[in-house]
Amino acid sequence: MLRQLEDGLSCLQRPSGAFAMLAIDQRETLRTMLSEATNGPVSDSELVEFKRQALTALSPLASAVLVDQDYGWRAALTRGAVSTNCGLVCAYDRFTASDRELVANVEIDDRVDPSTLRRQGAKALKLLVIWRPDEPAGRRIAMVEDFVRRCRAAGLISIIEPVSRPSIDGSIADRQDGIINAAREMGDRGQDLYKAEVPLFGRGDDRHVGAQCAQLTRHISSPWVILSSGVLPERFPEVLELACKEGASGFLAGRAIWKPSIYAHDITNSLKTDAVDRLNAYAKSPTRQSLRRQVGRELWMINPLYCPSLQPQRFRLAVRICLLCARTLALRD
């Protein structure tokens, strides 16, 4: 079946065109976090309940939410859990653990039927891809291309999430080169959206981090967004700004938004207040950058150098109209 995406990526975007997406697809890593916070075991039902609470509190502000099939999808389909103006994204990946890693290997989750998910309300699917320096690229590339084909056949947006990991034998532990190499390898595989780790995990100086983000833009042919894992929470707003200035279109983040609430005395209240404030604050940066790009494109089109017949007075009026439209979009966001 030919892919039919009538609204392109807009179902995952804010009116400005920016992506301000919430990720709550963590599985055993989330169980570990909750267990550390409560000093006790965490049941499947407790995982589902946390996800439901996070979705209810945060989806009204998010342009889209990413959930997993095992624990999040049921919560997302609960009446009232996800805001009607928030796009639904489902993880299409299945993880295998090892002695050293909770997520050591990833494959496409064949338990999931994309067409069924679409009928249930999904707008997109996401695939995590582990990049290691000592594993052959062929398997990764084949899996990504298979994933993209399946999404197209089901009429769903495809989101890939390459993440850099150490070599299997542990001899190469530097993950920074892997972030760029993964983008070089998988940035032009037909995906609709690319979810990237922050270069240097935000730990370099601003100029260096920005330069690395610019490299991602050169290697990735689709729009791309950043994730928050590995970035210090207090640093995330700054690196988000840097990434958006260098070509990113927003974020698909989880830990930076809801993780601090796990350790709060009242988790439910913290999700409704503190986490909401964080999501609101993070959304401002990609919105500003998106509006600047829109205004820049419009001004380019009406530049007197390219429209000699446009009088200076009319040019100034057109500029004012563009700025007014930008302000209107910002208010809608």
UniProtKB/TrEMBL annotation:
Question: InterPro entries given for it?
Answer: Aldolase_TIM, DeoC/FbaB/LacD_aldolase, LacD_aldolase
Q: Which UniProt keywords apply?
A: Lyase
The EC number(s) this enzyme carries? 4.1.2.57
Pfam families attached to this UniProt entry: DeoC (PF01791)
Give the similarity note: Belongs to the aldolase LacD family.
Please verify whether the record's keywords include Lyase: yes
Q: Which organism is it from?
A: Rhizobium leguminosarum
According to its UniProt entry, the protein's GO biological process terms are: 6-sulfoquinovose(1-) catabolic process
Protein name per Swiss-Prot or TrEMBL:
Sulfofructosephosphate aldolase
